[in-house]
Amino acid sequence: MTDAEIADLRAACPRILTHHRPRGPREVLADLAASTPAQFPFDRYGEAAWLGEFEARVAAELGKEAAAFMPSGTMAQQIALRIWCDRARNPTIAYHPLSHLEIHESRGYAMLHGLRALPVGASARLMTPADVRAISDPLGAFLVELPQREIGAQLPLWDDLVALCDAARATGAKVHLDGARLWEATPFYGRSHAQVAALFDSAYVSFYKGLGAIGGAMLAGDAAFVAEARTWQHRHGGRLFSLAPIALSARLGFERNLGMMGAWFERAKEIARALGEIPGVAIVPNPPQTNTFHVFLEGVAAELEDRAHAHAREHGTFSFARLAPTANPRVQKWEFVVGDATDGIDTSAIVRAVQAIVAGGED
Fold first, then answer.
1. Of 224, 190, 255, 231, whose CA–CA distance to 79 is shortest?
2. Are residues 85 and 217 in the same domain?
3. Burial class of 246 by CB neighbour count within 10 A (0 to 12, 13 to 18, 19+)
4. What is the pLDDT of residue 240?
5. DSSP output for 253-302
6. pTM exceeds cut of 0.90
7. Is residue 159 assigned to a domain?
8. Based on C-alpha coordinates, what's the Rg of the chain?
9. Which domain holds residue 334?
10. Tens digit of pLDDT for each residue in 155-172?
11. Residue 361: what pLDDT?
12. Three-state DSSP class for 337?
C-alpha cells in the first residue's frame, strides 16, 4: 500500500491503537478557536501578554528563571548548544549515538553552527558515567535525552541520572536536557518536572508529541541564557510575524494532556505485559519506563505489514503503518505509544489484533 492509501485506511478505522487520535486541520483549528478566549490578540513577533504568561508558566513548571517559545525543537536545541559552546570557546558537543541531533537533523549543528559532535557510549544502551569519564576531549556542551527514544524510550535510574549529569559537568561542559518527551518521563521517577530539570543548565521541551499540539517547543534556562536564545531564534528565522496558531495549540495541549502522563504510563505497562505473552513478540524495555515502548515482532516486514493493513480493513482496528528493520531480518520493530487514541480500547482487543498480525489468523 502507498503512504496515501495507508493514511486513508487509518482515518477510516474507528480504533487506532497508538498515539493520538488523528484529526484533520478543520477539526484542530475549530477546537483551537473554541478554546481561545475572544479577547486574545495575535502576538507580534512573539510579543503578547498571553504568550509571555505561557512562557513564564512553563519556566516555573521546569524550575527555570525564563523560557522562550520556539517553532521547533531542532531550532531550540541547536541554539542551546551554540550558546554553551560559544561561552566555553569550545565547539565540541557530546551525546548518545542515537541522539535526535545525530540521526534526524542532517547534521544541522555542524552545517549551521560549526559544532563538532562526539557520540558517547554504545548505541544499544543508555550512556553511563563511566562512558563520560572515558572522554578525553574537552567539551563545550553535553546533551542528555530523556527518555532515549530510539532504544525504546529507556530512562536511567534516578541515582544513575544524577551521576551521569555530575560526570558530564565535571568535564567543564554545560549540561543540556533534550526533554522532547520529558512530560512522559517524570511518572517513572516520581519527581516533578522541576526536580528533573534542576539537574541541567538548560532544558528543551516539546508540545506536539505527548501533548498533541500542532507543534512548538520551549527552551528554558536562566534569564541571560534565554535572552541570548531569543537573539539566536531571530537569526534562525524563528521569530515569525505571529506564533499564535502554534503557541495557542501548545498552550491547549499543555493544559489538557499534561495530567494524563501518569495514566498513560500505567496503561503502557499493562499493554506491554499482555503483548509480551504472545509467542513471537518481545517488549523493550520490559516493563516500559514511559508511555512508549518497542514491540519486536518475528516475521518478514512486508508480510506483517500486509496482515496489519488487512486486519485494519476487516476489523476497523489500525495498528501500524510501517515497521522498522532491525539487525535481524526476521525481527521487525514497532514503536507503541499510548495516547488518547489508545484510551477506550480494551487491552484484550489490542492483544487479539497483534496475535492476528503475528500468526496471520483471525482475531
1. 231
2. yes
3. buried
4. 96
5. HHHHHGGGHHHHHHHHHHHHHHHTTSTTEEEESSS-SSSEEEEEEES-HH
6. yes
7. yes
8. 21
9. 3-23+260-359
10. 999 999 999 999 999 999
11. 53
12. strand
